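sorry to bug you again but im stuck and you know this stuff better than me. below you get a single protein, a line of residues and a line of whole numbers that encode the local backbone shape. mainly i need to know what kind of three dimensional shape the backbone takes. anything you notice is useful, everything is just below:

***
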Amino acid sequence: MTNQKTAFPKGFLWGGATAANQLEGAYLEDGKGLSVADAMPGGKQRFQILGSETFNWEIDESKYVYPNHRGIDHYHRYKEDIALFAKMGFNCYRFSIAWARIFPKGDETTPNEAGLKFYDQVIDECLKHGIEPVITISHYEIPLHLAKEYGGWKNRQLIDFFETYAKTVLTRYGKKVKYWMTFNEINSAFHFPALSQGMVKATGGRDYQNIFQAWHNQFVASAKAVKIGHEINPDMQIGCMIIYATTYSIDANPINQAETMIQNQEFNFYCTDAQVRGVYPSYQQRMFEKYGVKALDIAEEDLELMKEYPVDYIGFSYYMSTAVNVTTEEDDNVAGNLLGGVRNPFLEASEWGWQIDPEGLRIGLNELYDRYQKPLFIVENGLGAIDKVDENFYVEDDYRIDYLRRHIEAMSEAVKDGVDLMGYTPWGCIDLVSASTGEMSKRYGFIYVDLDDEGNGTMNRYEKKSFHWYKKVIETNGQDLN
């Protein structure tokens, strides 16, 4: 397939993606408050610690390290980093605003001007280089105060706090920034609500009643952001953002096929149905019965808001597919992006056990577009790997190039299938702190950052082999993938 001509439209958005909490650092600088990400310890046990009975968002530096506090110092080096993105030819860059930079506790009514000025500078730097900003309003970093004092998104008060925050940033940047997303990987809460909903075991994070209530509150908040954005600038495009994992039955057994359908509904479609269609799906009541969810706290105007202000496009991450088997006792489970599944014998896996499936991306693009008929935007995709540098800090990352090439080929096939695909921003375009482990050793970037898991290194930036390959991909609008 490599030598076939690809089929990306003129004006296709090519770029890369990051998140404020994973690269900015400066975690208390210029009036910024603490976020939930600042309270997440680093290391391979991060998710186990966050999911424990006793974790309650307290920061204990005598016991843990917190790599997000320092990130890769993008807060002070954003000009250098954006210049490198421009050198690669990016025409868009997906990043997030740190809510706690704008409202340090989250429940204030007056924003922190220093935080607003920082993003003025980042946006202007992007535009200076001809790079279209694509901004996530809330990316796994709600203010820690909202998690500790209000219990996270299960509390309806967060709708008003988010509305104030969204109105502030959409008003401030809405004339310069066309593309926005409300909540990063909103459906991730189905498996792990600590990140996107700010809820842990101690604050009800294992109770599906709270998870579904928190989702409802986020759906309403998202609709309010869409309303605000369209009033500020009718051309503004505001999307949702989900994890999408193409899901297969392990075999033709109808029992596995039915379970695959159910898992698709629960994980891939529930949040998207609510945000894209603007109404709750027909299978909702059966889900509620399965998970012991009683009637939600829904205000009279909530459903009308959701219906009137659905999102304009679907942003999603795609790293892997998953397989379903409920008919045998075999325990052959594999890891994944907040979800696993059984091992698919037809696929290889990354060093972290994520099953690599480019053809699954084409399938997923078709599934999403057929279901919703709204533009799609792949805002995360990539290969986390341990990179080896030579004496000049050069990384020969052919494995990353191969991964991305195969996924771009699959994207091209989906476009030929008739899918309306807006753009592609591979994850972690510059090496940054991993969300799952808080480590630097799991690297995704086209740019190597000299920093190890213990915090040692110069933080200098170096172009990898994939940097020059991706530059050529962008220059040719996806035609040259060799």
About this structure: The longest helix spans residues 208-232. The chain has one domain: 13-475. The chain has 15 helices and 14 strands. Residues 18 and 216 are 26 Å apart (CA to CA).
